Predict the structure.
Amino acid sequence: MAETVTAAVLVIGNEILSGRTQDANVAFLGKSLDDLGVRLREVRVVADIEADIVAAVNALRVRYDYLFTTGGIGPTHDDITADSIAAAFGVGIGYHPGIHKLLKEHFEGRGLEANEARMRMARVPDGARLIDNEISLAPGFQIDNVFVLAGVPSIARAMFGGASNRLRRGAVVLSRSIRVHCAEGAIAAPLAALQAEFPAVDMGSYPWRDGESFGASLVLRATDRALLDAAYDRVFAAASAVGGEPVEEPAEA
């Protein structure tokens, strides 16, 4: 049986905490990791404060198999993620010669000054392994089990695509979903009893409303197909027994 592989995401940035920017990376990473058999277990958001980033990185990287950070590797004064990661690992940080050359040629080729701010994006912690960035050239990096990605969603996705082959695969989680036409309170007790009976199957209830109609989507997730199907049949029967008029929903994309 495949092992369980876990991950966490650390979202870095004052703009996320202030509500000015809505995070779009967690949903992408959660789905992408799930497809690889890596379970996203925790998400944290921290401000652009080095001590807070260091504390979060050091807590999460020892608790989970992988940690992905997003944000804070651009050219501005508040882009302090690279320095914070170096501090978390107790290593130095400096300009990567190859990236420095690449960025310098890139900016000057566009008629832009390769100033100190722009060239900051060539700084990586000592011993880090680069993660290619085919969109804007400035790379992400990996150090031990920590993957440092950009905050811009399109760039974060490109970086993840380039780094995903470095991940150890675990057991892929399968899912089935039932749409019921009753209040969650009507199905809560039998669902709780079935969750206790099938502890290896994660059972979630998510309410929906469509005009005057309402109900819940009951989502079952497990790594064992036979066990998932057995639990599904029992939940479907329980929903029918309480008048929930259950119907199977399409599988998750």
Remarks:
- The first strand starts at residue 5 and ends at 12.
- The mean pLDDT is 93.
- The chain is about 40% helix and 25% strand.
